[in-house]
Amino acid sequence: MIIEKINIEPLKDELPSEYADRLGIYYTKSVSIKHKKESGQFFTPTPIANLMASFSDLKSESLRILDPGCGAAVLTCALIENLTNKNKKLNFVDIVAYETDPNLISFSQKALDYLKFWLKERNVKFQYLLHIHDFILDNAKALKTKTLSKNNFDLIISNPPYFKLAKDDIKTIAAKELVSGQPNIYSIFMGIASKLLKENGELIFITPRSFASGNYFKAFRQLFFKTVQIDKIHLFNSRKDTFNRDSVLQETVIIKAINEPINPNKQVIISSSLGIKDIFEPSVKYFLSSELIDMKSEEKILHLPTNDKEESILNLVTSWKNNLIDHNIQISTGPVVSFRSWDYIQNNYQNGTVFLAPLFWLHNVNKMFLEWPITSKNKGQFIKIEDSSKSILLPNKNYIFLRRFSTKDDKSRLIASPYFCNYAKSNFIGVENKLNYIYRKNGHLERSEVAGLCALLNSELFDTYFQIFNGNVNVSATELRGMKIPTLNEIKEIGNKIILTNDYSMENVNQIVNSYFEFENIFI
């Protein structure tokens, strides 16, 4: 698609960011939703651009700035407006921008040309270079360099594209240092940008918050958090509001980081707003960097508490010293991959020569109870016990089943049910691949351990903690292996309380867990 000549001109006394925003809205209405999704192209609303711009503290007379995903140049314009207002000494700005959509280039140019005119009236010299090359392919070599280049940038600001890349994509291969699974392009933008900063240079990005945890972003976190120091973070508590004009459902975060020595005692500001309307009236919390990221850990998970309740829960969980493996408890992913196992899966029980085991799917698992069998299309509730199927079956003993995925509508990320071996008479059971199962490999989980650990996973305490660092709908075994949990004795005590009451309702579970850790008042 080719856009015809643009007849949108700046209004009298219009700010460059407002003009760029008008250009962006016009362009957005000219392209399909499919085009926007395939390009990961969602332009930054001006209130968000202004908040991001306000994060910069640079006071230099001249600045070299990079915008690796320029779009309609709203971010660049908002940034320069803010810097000009705060720093009366500023006299020269050099912008390098990237935009690969050929139909958008003319919009970007009009916005940047008007910015140049606006700055000239304020006696600030301005030059820009607008690349139509791919930012990643142009700059991935920076991931391999150890020393700073004289061509590096004072500030990098971006709302990068968001979409998954194939493992054999040329960009994935070019940035292999950042890849530990299927990558999302935004994290590659962030990782490369962190390597293009001058000493004390600033990086300000708005992205999904999924990079904070998960195995797919592990290599990225290891590089990024060793390269730059987090300074400020802003979270949006509403998925719908941030990019509402593009109908984007996404948990987003603004992150500012600085190329300076990593300091665990650095004070980090975390602010949050519901969305755009209250963006300049946020709630604000202060943390030490070490409270948010354990730099000694392999995973380097970023925790993002935004209120007193989350801070109290984070303090409790980080005080625990154990994880699952310390209690000889393991977590794995269900071995039954349905499309490879159709020959073994059956809908109905039958006697005779066919021996069947129960098969548990994600839909069978609810908070603190297992619903089986259920009638669901293509979700057969039995699996054949044969020599050729035994490699994907589990011995029938006590387990906890945990959903690997939640939906965006689920109030909880963690949904787990206890499974006791007397549930089925079979010697084996089947667990489908969309479930994690928790077990003791060489031994048996006691009933009190199953009830107690399952109660903790389902509790509002644990769910709140999990959402402090998990910004997507996936519940990975890797994250759960790394999570801190109470002592085995504490887990058993919680389990025994639930078993004695014989009440597995979530109301009773939360009452017992909150009371045990003296957290009753926090959840009122």
Which key terms come to mind for this protein?
single chain; 524 residues; alpha/beta; Rossmann fold; Adenine-n6-DNA-methyltransferase TaqI, Chain A, domain 2; 2 domains; nine-stranded mixed sheet; five-stranded mixed sheet; 16 helices; 20 strands; 30% helix; elongated
Would you kindly provide a written description of the structure presented here, covering whatever features stand out?
Pfam families: Eco57I. It is elongated, with a radius of gyration of 26 Å. It has helices spanning 16-30, 33-39, 46-54, 74-86, 105-120, 135-139, 170-174, 185-194, 218-227, 289-292, 308-319, 447-458, 460-469, 477-482, 488-501, 506-516, and strands at 62-67, 92-98, 125-131, 153-158, 197-208, 229-236, 252-258, 267-273, 283-288, 330-333, 345-346, 356-360, 365-366, 369-370, 382-384, 394-395, 399-403, 416-419, 428-431, 435-439. It is of the alpha/beta class. Helix 1 runs antiparallel to helix 4 (74-86). A nine-stranded mixed sheet has the order 3-2-1-4-5-7-6-8-9, sandwiched between helices. It folds into two domains: 17-231, Vaccinia Virus protein VP39 (Rossmann fold); 326-523, DNA methylase specificity domains (Adenine-n6-DNA-methyltransferase TaqI, Chain A, domain 2, Alpha-Beta Complex).
Summarize the structure.
InterPro entries: DNA_methylase_N6_adenine_CS, MethylTrfase_TaqI-like_dom, N4_N6_ade-DNA_methylase, SAM-dependent_MTases_sf. The chain has 16 helices and 20 strands.
